[in-house]
Automatic annotation (TrEMBL):
<dbReference type="GO" id="GO:0006508">
    <property type="term" value="P:proteolysis"/>
</dbReference>
<keyword id="KW-0720">Serine protease</keyword>
<dbReference type="InterPro" id="IPR043504">
    <property type="entry name" value="Peptidase_S1_PA_chymotrypsin"/>
</dbReference>
<dbReference type="InterPro" id="IPR001254">
    <property type="entry name" value="Trypsin_dom"/>
</dbReference>
<keyword id="KW-1015">Disulfide bond</keyword>
<protein>
    <recommendedName>
        <fullName>Peptidase S1 domain-containing protein</fullName>
    </recommendedName>
</protein>
<feature type="domain" description="Peptidase S1">
    <location>
        <begin position="1"/>
        <end position="173"/>
    </location>
</feature>
<dbReference type="InterPro" id="IPR050430">
    <property type="entry name" value="Peptidase_S1"/>
</dbReference>
<dbReference type="Pfam" id="PF00089">
    <property type="entry name" value="Trypsin"/>
</dbReference>
<keyword id="KW-0378">Hydrolase</keyword>
<dbReference type="InterPro" id="IPR009003">
    <property type="entry name" value="Peptidase_S1_PA"/>
</dbReference>
<dbReference type="GO" id="GO:0004252">
    <property type="term" value="F:serine-type endopeptidase activity"/>
</dbReference>
<keyword id="KW-0645">Protease</keyword>
Length: 174
């Protein structure tokens, strides 16, 4: 099974390891980041070949799991991917989910999955999280301004999945 994420999430400096799969796992089917649901072991990360640590351009990666994710019709579903080069229109509602920091200056993950719906403002602490429009995965959290990315006028930056749809199809066959 392949999971889509931001490449930056795979290379965080605080990992202090050469192979992020040594500590990376995927919890699914739970709203709690540290309990419940199922856990899939990561066996490989596949970064976009043009990813840049310096500019964060092409900030996208795939995480391959040792065992398939067990999808069901109630709580564990794949998020459909967009067509190559499709765009989100300014003002469209974008659902953002993740267990990122909820208090400025306090680096403790939210214990329960958080969700907010915001309007997209342009076309282009919780790295890799999904941005969804009308049930389609349109973005992956790339970066923000430190602990301040949730402040008004300090927007989070997302990798535009549609730009990489052909690459994803080549690597995953989906």
């Amino acid at each position: 099974m392949d999971i889509l994420s931001a490449e930056r999430m795979q290379k965080r400096e605080n990992f202090h390891i050469r192979n992020p799969t040594e500590i990376l796992s995927i919890r699914y089917g739970s709203i709690h980041h540290d309990s419940g649901g199922e856990v899939a072991e990561a066996i490989e990360t596949v970064a976009h070949p043009s990813y840049s640590d310096w500019t964060l351009n092409n900030d996208i990666a795939l995480i391959r799991t040792k065992t398939p994710i067990k999808l069901n019709s109630n709580t564990i579903k794949a998020i459909p991917l967009p067509a190559q080069d499709s765009d989100v229109t300014a003002g469209q509602s974008v659902a953002i989910t993740g267990w990122g920091y909820t208090t400025e200056g306090v680096q403790i993950l939210a214990p329960i999955l958080q969700k907010i719906t915001l309007p997209a403002v342009e076309r282009s602490g919780d790295s890799g999280g999904p941005a969804v429009v009308n049930g389609i995965l349109v973005g992956a959290v790339s970066w923000g301004y430190g602990d301040y990315c949730a402040r008004p006028e300090l927007y989070g930056i997302y990798t535009r999945i549609a730009k990489f749809r052909d690459w994803i199809k080549i690597k995953t066959l989906i």
